[in-house]
Amino acid sequence: MKKILKFHATWCGPCKSLSNTIDSIKSQIPYPVEEIDIDAHNDLAMKYAVRGVPTLIIVDHDKEVKRAVGNMNAQQLKTFVEV
Q1: Is residue 6 over pLDDT 70?
Q2: Which are the catalytic amino acids?
Q3: Residue 60 forms beta bridges with which residues?
């Protein structure tokens, strides 16, 4: 099963902006979005080699399918989730 891992931090402005974008098109995102705070879950950030936030990773049964780093607008997000 595919899902999106959204790595973020509470202090990250672009992360908050991306959260708003995700919320605005939630019904058009075909996979569940799992929020992962890198400060609280450093182990997962290390496992997926996250070096910057926000980072979105689409995984299928814990195997990485696609990755994007940085903020994106609604159209970029829609394109990203087309796997």
Answers
A1: yes
A2: 12, 15
A3: 2, 63
